[in-house]
Amino acid sequence: GDSVTQMEGPVTLSEEAFLTINCTYTATGYPSLFWYVQYPGEGLQLLLKATKADDKGSNKGFEATYRKETTSFHLEKGSVQVSDSAVYFCALSGWGSRTGTASKLTFGTGTRLQVTL
Amino acid sequence: SQTIHQWPATLVQPVGSPLSLECTVEGTSNPNLYWYRQAAGRGLQLLFYSVGIGQISSEVPQNLSASRPQDRQFILSSKKLLLSDSGFYLCAWSVNGRTTDTQYFGPGTRLTVL
Known about the structure:
The complex is a heterodimer of chains A (117) and B (114).
Chain A: E1 3-6, E2 11-14, E3 19-21, E4 23-26, E5 32-38, E6 44-50, E7 56-59, E8 62-65, E9 75-77, E10 86-93, E11 105-107, E12 111-116
Parallel strand pairs in A: 2-12
Antiparallel strand pairs in A: 1-4, 3-9, 5-6, 5-10, 7-8, 8-9, 10-11, 10-12
Chain B: E1 3-7, E2 10-13, E3 19-26, E4 32-38, E5 44-52, E6 55-58, E7 64-70, E8 73-78, E9 87-94, E10 104-105, E11 109-113
Parallel strand pairs in B: 2-11
Antiparallel strand pairs in B: 1-3, 3-8, 4-5, 4-9, 5-6, 7-8, 9-10, 9-11
């Protein structure tokens, strides 16, 4: 079945450091890929997405490129801020996970990012 | 624009008591609706999803149930809570029939069973 593997956290960085959170996936067909962010005590917010190979999703300075050859969707940001401290989830919605018109997201376990001054 | 509401935001319940969590979506029609649970420090577990009124699919056997009495209303229930039901419950919606499959999440309900 579909699966998503994220790097273990927590990741601790100083403000203005470069961020990479690795995400690899296993899925049949051509899944859509997502990054969600969860701030403390809140629900998940969609950060960015990509729906086909070589697409780059971007938002708020974060980027991720859909790499089908390496089955990866790594999240990057050139200069993190304290306000970026949160848990980041990689997810996929694959053709194999459809039932009727519903899709089922497969999530990674999440990576906690802590940014310090 | 679409918004999704959940209530209550926080709930503390004794073991064996009933549960009712509500989720409503505004600004869209015939959405797909989902219930997830997030245990402390863990990822998300899909509990139920619905593609229409009265249509519920269960992902994990447990003492929880879900209902969809109206197009944009999704309710999570239990007759008798267990300690293991504690967690953060998230409702989500997606556009029915769309291929991009983005799910949009509500603010969540934190449930503590004592």
